[in-house]
Design goal:
Largest sheet: none
Strand content: under 5%
Shape: elongated
Number of strands: 0
Helix content: over 70%
């Protein structure tokens, strides 16, 4: 075997060169493998990152959905709570009103007659007074014109029309007085809209202190009744009612008489509670032309449930004989469920059972 100067065999040198070439090739392969591994790792990392991003997005979406559901539930719960609170408040208000009403009635039972009378008297307002003055003034003007028209149309020549229409008007005025009196005594209270403090008040005052009305002047006594008649008297005074037929003459006389007796009803009522009335008034009472003290005293027996007619009282015995007012009360209670005279009984200190 031939030796080189470094004492190594030639084939070793050749083998060594081949080995170096193989090493380079292996390095290249390793680098390629490493590069592929890096690329695979990078790809895997990118994939993992994408998965993480997708997972995060999904988680965020799921979280948003859950948050939306939670918020929706909270809103629904809040709305439901508000509705429940409103219903509870309404129920509490109704209970308070019922409790207040019951307390008010209980307080009325325990309040002295003097305090009740003072309270009712103080409820007579300046507005009410002004309305009464206007009503009495208009009534007086329209009645004067209507009577003048009747006289100028020669009613004396048709006296039977005048007399018959007067009697019919007196009956009807008596019945109207009973209806109004019964309604104000039996139903409603001072809190009733429109008519409570302005109209029903005087009826409650009258039952608490019956003689209080004898201290009222002409305006306060007759204001409400005059107001009721003003619209009709305006027609008879200013309307174009011709007297060319018996029917028109009867109608004119009937309407004027009806308004006259309706307007006079509370004055007649006042006289039935007044001592030492004028002799002429006493004669009218004793003769039965107007309401007598004896007949009206029947109404003021507890529980004030009969003899409501107060113009002349002609209808009181007949209506009492057929139990008219009690039957009418039963109909109203059946339709509305409201018991009669609960408020009036509280003011008068009469138990509801009566």
């Amino acid at each position: 075997m031939t030796l080189l100067n470094n004492n190594k065999p030639i084939n070793y040198i050749i083998g060594s060169g081949a080995s170096e070439e193989g090493s380079v090739s292996d390095d290249i392969k390793l680098k390629q493998q490493y590069s592929k591994a890096n690329q695979a790792e990078v790809t895997q990392l990118e994939h993992d990152n994408n998965n993480n991003i997708n997972n995060n997005n999904n988680n965020n979406n799921n979280k948003n959905k859950e948050d939306y559901k939670v918020n929706s539930r909270k809103k629904d719960d809040k709305i439901q709570q508000e509705q429940q609170q409103q219903e509870q408040q309404q129920q509490e208000q109704q209970e308070q009103q019922s409790s207040f009403k019951a307390t008010s009635e209980k307080e009325l039972y325990n309040t002295s007659k003097e305090d009740k009378a003072k309270d009712l008297k103080n409820r007579y307002t300046s507005t009410k007074r002004t309305t009464e003055i206007i009503s009495v003034t208009l009534f007086s003007i329209f009645l004067a014109i209507s009577v003048y028209r009747m006289l100028t149309l020669l009613f004396i020549k048709n006296i039977w029309i005048f007399l018959s229409s007067t009697v019919l008007a007196m009956f009807l005025a008596d019945f109207f007085s009973g209806i109004v009196h019964w309604a104000a005594d039996t139903w409603g209270s001072l809190d009733t809209p429109l008519v409570g403090n302005s109209f029903i008040r005087s009826f409650r005052e009258h039952h608490v202190v019956p003689t209080q009305m004898t201290h009222h002047d002409v305006i306060e006594t007759n204001g409400d009744n005059c107001m009721l008649t003003v619209p009709i008297l305006a027609i008879t005074a200013l309307g174009n009612i011709t007297m060319d037929s018996t029917y028109n003459m009867f109608l004119m006389s009937f309407l004027v008489n009806l308004c006259f007796w309706v307007s006079l009803t509370n004055q007649i009522h006042k006289w039935s509670h007044t001592y030492n009335v004028h002799p002429f008034v006493g004669f009218l009472q004793k003769s039965g032309i107007i309401l007598s003290k004896r007949d009206h005293a029947i109404h003021h027996r507890n529980p004030f449930d009969k003899y409501y007619c107060i113009t002349n009282g002609w209808l009181n015995p007949w209506l009492a004989s057929i139990n008219f007012w009690k039957r009418l009360e039963n109909v109203v209670t059946l339709l509305t469920g409201v018991l009669p005279r609960t408020d009036d009984g509280a003011w008068c200190g009469i138990p509801s059972s009566q």
